[in-house]
Amino acid sequence: MSSCVKRFGRSCASLVSKRGLSTSCIQKDAAVVAENGVKSLNLYSAINQALHIALDTDPRAYVFGEDVGFGGVFRCTTGLADRFGRSRVFNTPLCEQGIVGFGIGLAAMGNRAIAEIQFADYIFPAFDQIVNEAAKFRYRSGNQFNCGGLTIRTPYGAVGHGGHYHSQSPEAFFCHVPGIKVVIPRSPKQAKGLLLSCIRDPNPIVFFEPKWLYRLAVEDVPEDDYMLPLSEAEVIRQGCDITLVGWGAQLSIMEQACLDAEKEGISCELIDLKTLIPWDKETVEASVKKTGRLLISHEAPVTGGFGAEISASIIERCFSRLEAPVARVCGLDTPFPLVFEPFYMPTKNKILDAIKSTVNY
Known about the structure:
Layout lengths: L1 H12 L18 E2 L4 E5 H15 L3 E5 L14 H5 L4 E3 L4 H13 L3 E5 L10 H8 L2 H4 L9 E7 L14 H5 L5 E3 L4 H13 L4 E6 L7 E5 L11 E4 L4 E5 L3 H14 L4 E5 L2 E3 L3 H11 L2 E8 L4 H13 L8 E5 L9 H4 L3 H12 L2
Helix pairs in contact: 2-8, 4-5, 9-13, 10-11
């Protein structure tokens, strides 16, 4: 199994996607030196840079997981073991429950435990450790103990050829659990700043990394140490006719739909949620009260997806302002397919159709 997973990871690393991206996400692979203390980085390089900073600035920080010692299947941990030593960056057995359990203990002793689950699809053996141990550690001890130094990194979502065991988006499972935070970046700059915030946050966090964007999303990233606030959504495009909410890789698809909608005279406001739990209801509510309409898009199946929670909350808060039912453009209620992935995914055209249908309701 290990060799199979490694081969899959290498093929993912060399993937050249046909999926469109915004002008800020041009396909490149190498970091290019830019001016004013920034570098043009892809997403995996930005994560690698964040991990270097985390280990360099805190001697209590440790990185561990399957194959992280040689850089990992997506190369996010490249160079860490050589620089910081095998006692701080080390491989673990293929046992996700053991990885997270070890991380809980390490964090409970006052360390910064940065655990990697090789694919989010394989996080489920660690589900009990995350939801029954990490999430409840502080509560059950009456705040005498905690494992707030635990960050669980894991690649999630579609990748173009992953099928049902390497393409899932399980974020909604963890949004149901009080005591942990769930964070998903959309771009390299966001990934670096949010990951450093997660590592230094006093709560256990699951940090989902959109694997589709590891080498495709490129932007100028500050070289220095910086953090971005958690639980603050960002309005990345202003509009007045409809509000669109998403996270991770789906933001680039939604942005394309917004551009096409603009050609037809529809003004879309686009919001990146970034932190799913606890999520920024106020920013979304303010936008919906302005536009009167809401569309949510994510790769996970529509039933029980986190879009349903957003929809319910906004209906409670903005019922009198809504001019149309809340729309959701999501994955299908099926196992993630292989050859039929294009039919499963929430594409630009699906989102555009939903925008027009909602605006013309």
